[in-house]
Every structure is written in structure tokens, then in C-alpha cells.
Automatic annotation (TrEMBL):
GO terms for molecular function: hypoxanthine phosphoribosyltransferase activity; magnesium ion binding; nucleotide binding. Keywords: Cytoplasm, Glycosyltransferase, Magnesium, Metal-binding, Nucleotide-binding, Purine salvage, Transferase. The lineage of its organism: Eukaryota, Metazoa, Ecdysozoa, Arthropoda, Crustacea. Its cofactor is Mg(2+). The keyword tRNA processing does not apply. It comes from Daphnia galeata. It is found in: Cytoplasm. This is Hypoxanthine phosphoribosyltransferase. Belongs to the purine/pyrimidine phosphoribosyltransferase family.
Length: 216
């Protein structure tokens, strides 16, 4: 894993009052952990690292839905921009989607279910980039990588926007990572708590009010 930004446990984040927060979430958040602008600037660098590492070979980029969709579209946009502007070479990209479910409330349920997406036959013999929102215990990613191996890709690398410092981690570390974060439940920028908060611009820490309001 290269040059990820480490957010320390002692970091309190930014006050909600310093940013624009939708009225419907004002009572449900503790702080802004990573503002939208910083997310974008970091993704720009991840795109550059991927562009350099994958050379001229075609790349199948797989979006893990739903939480990965914003990171995925912003990352692909930035790789495409490098493809248009670098002149000497470009990475031919194809896009695929997979939908998994592994979480209920703020706990991983320990099993992952593939509940939709493309047929993974397309990865055979190809370089594959899996794009995920967050690695927590690492169980989802280990299981997904096991699944993908059955379709015999040439190589598989993972880009995760966030990596949580989780005591129960299985040790899985992605090749590309935006930010290493404290063991807190975060929402926004497509990350959800029971399908809420995906429409929040910044990555924020949810508070007890938000958890109690939206738990099932
Ligand atoms: P893992 O299997 O424990 O690594 O969990 C990974 C999945 O859990 C992610 O793809 C997310 O969908 C979800 N997840 C874990 N932590 C968070 C969080 O803090 N906020 C939102 N979703 C999370």
C-alpha cells in the first residue's frame, strides 16, 4: 500500500458548522472527518498511481456497489483524464459492477452475499482493479477476491478509499488506499448506514442519534 493518508485516533475532525450539511442530517452527525475537496485531491493521486502501474495493458475496473459508486466514478473520471492528456500512452478501461451485501446496522454480518452485477467471465486473463469504499475487518474483500480467482484473471489489485484501523481485522491491506481512519462508523460520499447518508457530500462520523434513528 503506497502513500495512504493516516488519520490519527486523536483527530476530532471538523465542526459541522464549518461546512454545508443537509438539514435532514444535522442532528445525526458528530463531525466532518474528510471534506469532499480533500477526497477529490487524494483520488487524483490514486488515479495517477494506477495509471503509472498498469502501463498500456487493458484494465477491467470493477465497482463494488453501492458504497463504492462515488469513489469509482471519480477515480475512473481521473484515469480517463490522464488517458486523454498524457499523450505517450493510455490505459484501455472497461467497466464492470458487482453488488454485495455484508452489513446490517453498524456490524458486519460475517457472510457476503452477491446480490447483483455483471457476469464475472469478463475478467478471464485480464488485469483487474476492484474499487471498494472501505475495508473494515477485511472479510468482504478476502471473500470477493476468492470469488474472482475462480474466473482466472491475470492479476487483481484493489483500490479502497478508506481502510479502518479495526482490531478484528484479518490483516488484509489493499494495494491503493486513500485514507487510513480510526475505528469509527463513517458515512457520506456514498457510504451508508442502513441505506441512509449516501447523499451526504463529505465523509462524516455518525453520532448515537443517527444510529438510533436509522437502526433496523
Ligand atoms: P468488512 O468485510 O468488515 O471489511 O466490511 C466491508 C464493508 O462493510 C464495506 O464494503 C462497507 O459496505 C461496510 N462498512 C464497513 N465499515 C463501514 C463504515 O464505517 N461505514 C459504512 N460502511 C461500512
Amino acid at each position: 500500500m503506497t502513500n495512504s493518508i493516516k488519520i490519527e485516533d486523536s483527530y476530532q475532525g471538523y465542526s459541522l458548522d464549518s461546512f454545508c450539511i443537509p438539514k435532514h442530517y444535522e442532528e445525526d452527525l458528530e463531525s466532518v472527518l474528510i471534506p469532499y475537496g480533500v477526497i477529490h485531491d487524494r483520488i487524483e493521486r490514486i488515479a495517477k498511481d494506477i495509471f503509472v502501474d498498469f502501463g498500456k495493458e487493458p484494465l477491467v475496473a470493477i465497482c463494488v456497489l453501492k458504497g463504492g459508486y462515488k469513489f469509482y466514478t471519480d477515480l475512473i473520471d481521473k484515469i480517463n483524464s490522464l488517458n486523454r492528456n498524457q499523450g505517450e500512452r493510455s490505459v484501455p478501461l472497461s467497466v464492470d459492477f458487482i453488488r454485495l451485501r455484508s452489513y446490517q446496522n453498524d456490524k458486519s454480518v460475517g457472510t457476503i452475499e452477491v446480490i447483483g452485477g455483471d457476469n464475472m467471465e469478463s475478467v478471464k486473463g485480464k488485469n483487474v482493479l476492484v474499487v471498494e469504499d472501505i475495508i473494515d475487518t477485511g472479510r468482504t474483500m478476502k471473500k470477493l477476491l476468492g470469488l474472482l480467482e475462480e474466473f482466472q484473471p491475470k492479476c487483481v489489485k484493489v483500490a479502497s478509499l478508506l481502510l479502518k484501523r479495526q482490531p478484528a481485522s484479518n490483516g488484509y491491506i489493499p494495494e491503493y488506499c486513500g485514507f487510513e481512519i480510526p475505528d469509527k462508523f463513517v458515512v457520506g460520499y456514498a457510504l451508508d448506514f442502513n441505506e441512509r447518508f449516501r447523499d451526504l457530500h463529505h465523509i462524516c462520523v455518525v453520532n448515537n442519534n443517527g444510529i438510533n434513528k436509522y437502526k433496523v
